[in-house]
């Protein structure tokens, strides 16, 4: 984690705001590869929030990092805090870039499909693609013109309430062999795109998706941490990972969104049902492991190896 | 810091030698009196002053001679250096990482001046002063990975990360412990480790792969690995086995202290920021048994480790045939006294 200064805050659309962070002394920031995200730490009253946001600025531009945040009024409060409380001049704690959605550089061609705010990783990736001279195609699907954000040259905009809804079959069936598909957006949108691609015979290795999960709220539950000899209650709007941290129990993490696998935790006893929300565990692992960043428990007591 | 570079060879008359200071800083790999595989990773964030862990890419008294040896090997067999087409960007990543690290860590030896994409690189020990355009291959005499690894000690595997795996898609491999880049190129992590006994059953590779895929730009990692080599030879490759394999049979009780070397690899792991690849430098350090035993703790411990090593591991490491000779020699330096924990001399 590093302390960076919020130097600019400007709206890209009614709900999406761009934030720019720079080193307080103007030192150059580490280079990253498009698709990387950073963890943004927010002290929201007594609650410490950590949200992951894709970097949207040019990965080779070391003068600053930019992210775009969509305001989620029904969310847990991180995006609201960014929109309302974060102000230029503030020094905030930002993690080093982590990439779980990298381009596959063996691809002959890159097809990038974004839904709504899912455009963010692609804004950085098209800079990399331009630099290495790789052919690509970027599509941005939104519901209404109010969701539009400035797009790079050559990007195709699809606005469903203006009748220019994205024709997935046409886009996916017209690609040459060796094309890799990347999709970022809502869970529903990702499923629709991947299903269509599979239906057209795209190889599984050529399909890439990224969905950041926010920890889903749920009923409070009790968890016993066997190694630390502590029993905690996870609040309705708290994740298990956050409850561990609040109790001073160390658990590693990178994405806090069920994708990176860092916080994987062994389940020692489970008197109830685990609601697995992650994209990490295989079905056969779900019986004895949990991802505390996004998954919850219903029942009497969950005992974990932390 | 002043470094004097040895005039020495790693073939022919094998004039390679360690100064007393080089012996003291040798990365002795055993922190206890026994050995078994483990994912013995630790952060690569410096280390004791003067140790091989202190700087990001260690430069020592063997630098110039090692680079001369690499040039000889490459002239005989250009396939020791390969880079699949999609690894071009990773090659530039590696060049940038090494140039930035060396110029910061050894400002007396290496200098990097950057004016936008126009870079000037000065390597004083090798007498190089080149100006080139970053990301423009045509402005360098070799590809970026080959260019910089002809100037950096140690082998370099440059791995692509995709499909939840790591792929051996580029490398400069001229000082290897009997494995072949030309054979392994394009393989994934499990494929190129397939010959290693026991480790797969122990679940080592699953854990190691998971760890490596999560190495981040600001968290390089390292581990030590080891084997035994007769004569101080860097190029112990399958391609040249007819040259060095028979030398294993040249050991006698009289010459073993001088001819048998403990070969230690300092392996480091670096996330490459532009390509999201992983650089895997494998730096080789060689120390003869007679030099090892000048550190009494190391002499005692090495005897116990080799004596108790299972035969399948000694076979994999290629010295089962000489194990009895080695144990007999080292036994003379083991008085049975307890050893202190950790790798450092007392």
TrEMBL record, chain A:
Domain of life, per lineage: Bacteria
The keyword Flavoprotein is assigned to this record: yes
Domain 2Fe-2S ferredoxin-type: residue ranges: 221-306
Presence of keyword NADP: no
One annotated GO molecular function: oxidoreductase activity
PROSITE patterns, sorted: 2FE2S_FER_1, 2FE2S_FER_2, FAD_FR
Cofactor or coenzyme needed: FMN
Segments forming domain FAD-binding FR-type: 1-104
Extent of the signal sequence: none
The entry's keywords: 2Fe-2S, Flavoprotein, FMN, Iron, Iron-sulfur, Metal-binding, Oxidoreductase
InterPro entries hit by this protein: 2Fe-2S_ferredoxin-like_sf, 2Fe-2S_ferredoxin-type, 2Fe2S_fd_BS, Beta-grasp_dom_sf, Cbr1-like_FAD-bd_dom, DmmA-like_N, FAD-bd_FR_type, FNR_nucleotide-bd
Protein name, per record: 2Fe-2S iron-sulfur cluster binding domain-containing protein
Upper lineage: Bacteria, Pseudomonadati, Pseudomonadota, Alphaproteobacteria, Rhodobacterales
From TrEMBL, chain B:
Domain of life: Bacteria
Protein name (record): DUF3445 domain-containing protein
